[in-house]
Specification:
The complex is a heterodimer of chains A (320) and B (109). Chain A is an alpha+beta fold and 320 residues long. Chain A has eight helices and eleven strands. Chain A is 25% helix and 24% strand. Chain A has a four-stranded mixed β-sheet with strand order 6-7-11-10. Chain A has a three-stranded mixed β-sheet with strand order 1-5-4. Chain A has a two-stranded antiparallel sheet with strand order 2-3. Chain B is an alpha+beta fold. In chain B, 52% of the residues lie in helices and 14% in strands. In chain B, strands 4-5 form a two-stranded antiparallel ribbon. In chain B, helix 1 packs across helix 2. The termini of chain B are far apart. The chains are: A alpha+beta (320), B alpha+beta (109). Chains A and B meet through helix 2, strand 3, strand 4, strand 5 and strand 6 of A and strand 1, strand 2, strand 3, helix 1 and helix 3 of B.
């Protein structure tokens, strides 16, 4: 287990006052707030900040943490000495709102949170009350195709749980999840009983998965509507055409009307993300008509362009 | 102790889509790790939206869960009052919405 230097994480001295700790935390929380931050590791940094703040802003935990001393030089692997917290009383649970903490934190303060659970033998805690496990939250990224057809996907998660002897162990687990057909960006999928373990016989919490789509070069998604670009040759755009177009799941015949205009879109009704019942109908697919010009790099192409230039009375800058 | 255990669940877990099975007041509060009173106050102040699917009984959809967690996070992280947290959440949601429109228009956000 890696020793966590909470003072270093918050960038404060060991002598920092409660007010200085709070100020440092808020300043960094603004920088790494996952809703706002552009830093790639914002989420992990925020979790670390929350943990450091939870310890250093709580006088009881801070005193206990300080008593551990600092990390011995050159030693990466850290274990607290036996009974390191004897004589310290933690009046509240370790968590607080939104607390998902490291192994290091759980090792130090986790036992206080699960007071009286397996592994607690000092008898200074209350009788254990059955307590429901906490709900966990994770984000998942899906391919657009997954939600058109519904799919089973393996989702890797890293969590922590108490083993039989009451020690915290990290656990990598892969959940095979059925993705409901027609789920859209931002929706939540709840997996009952897959959250944190219960304590003293309480039931486990739930796992909430927030759905996001992987970026796709071909499709852009808004709600249930899906937009794609449809490149047209000049003669298709000018004269109209019957063309075959791929959708995320099939190919459809589309009639392109004659007379192309910039920004024109075709709507394929019901070809967006599938609906979920009468109140939530399928989305539409939009095709943005774009012009693609054949290169004038062969004698034949040059000749055709030159013929058009000569014979078509066309001024593209008439409106300037 | 502390050795990563790899556990693979073989059978597929059927997820429950929250737009349909919207959360109850207690479920929402538990998912945010706040007391139900916290949720009630924010709904009554108009900071959080509840859909009354069953008369007299609040239900909350996916978007409300995301918003409630955001409000809770802003309040605890910055010691913000509910009004400031709600205003900040409004602005964050507006930015998310505008970025999505940029992406739909083919412009990178």
């Amino acid at each position: 287990m890696e020793f966590k230097d909470y003072y270093k994480i918050l960038g404060v001295a060991k002598t920092a006052t409660a007010d200085e700790v709070k100020k440092a935390y808020r300043k960094l929380a603004r920088k790494y707030h996952p809703d706002v931050s552009k830093e790639p590791d914002a989420q992990a940094r925020m979790a670390e900040l929350n943990e450091a703040q939870a310890v250093l802003s709580d006088p009881e935990k801070r005193v206990a943490y300080d008593a551990l001393g600092s990390q011995p030089a050159g030693q990466r692997d850290f274990r607290p000495p036996p009974n390191w917290d004897a004589g310290f009383e933690f009046s509240d649970g370790a968590g607080g709102a939104g607390g998902d903490y490291s192994d290091f934190f759980e090792q130090l303060f986790g036992r206080a949170r699960h007071a009286g659970g397996p592994g607690s033998s000092r008898g200074r805690h209350r009788e254990p009350q059955p307590e429901r496990g906490t709900d966990h939250h994770a984000k998942i990224e899906l391919d657009l195709l997954d939600v058109y057809d519904g799919a089973e996907r393996n989702i890797s998660l890293r969590g922590a749980r108490l083993d039989e002897s009451g020690h915290m162990v990290t656990e990598d687990r892969t959940l095979n999840v059925k993705i409901p057909k027609g789920v859209i960006e931002g929706q939540q999928i709840r997996l009952g009983g897959q959250g944190g373990p219960g304590h003293a016989g309480g039931p486990p919490g739930d796992l909430f998965l927030e759905v996001h789509f992987k970026p796709d070069a071909r499709y852009r998604v808004q709600g249930r509507d899906v937009t794609a670009s449809l490149p047209l040759a000049p003669w298709e755009a000018a004269l109209g055409a019957q063309i075959e177009v791929p959708t995320p799941t099939s190919r459809v015949q589309v009639t392109v009307p004659a007379g192309w205009k910039k920004g024109r879109k075709l709507r394929l009704k019901g070809h967006g993300i599938p609906g979920r019942g009468a109140t939530d109908p399928a989305g539409d697919m939009y095709l943005e008509l774009e012009l693609a010009l054949p290169p004038g790099d062969t004698p034949k192409a040059r000749e055709l362009y030159e013929t058009m230039a000569r014979e078509l009375p066309f001024d593209p800058r008439a409106g300037l | 102790m502390n050795t990563p255990n790899a556990i693979t669940v073989q059978h597929a877990l059927a997820g429950e889509l929250l737009e349909e099975a919207a959360l109850s007041l207690e479920e929402l509060a538990r998912a945010c790790r706040v007391p139900p009173g916290w949720v009630i106050e924010r709904v009554e102040s108009g900071f959080l939206e509840a859909a009354a699917a069953v008369p007299g009984e609040w239900r909350f959809a996916s978007a409300s869960l995301v918003r409630a967690r955001r409000l809770c996070n802003l309040e605890t992280t910055f010691d913000a009052g509910p009004e400031i947290a709600a205003l900040t959440a409004d602005l964050i949601e507006e930015v998310v919405h505008l970025r999505q429109r940029l992406r739909t228009a083919g412009l990178d956000a």
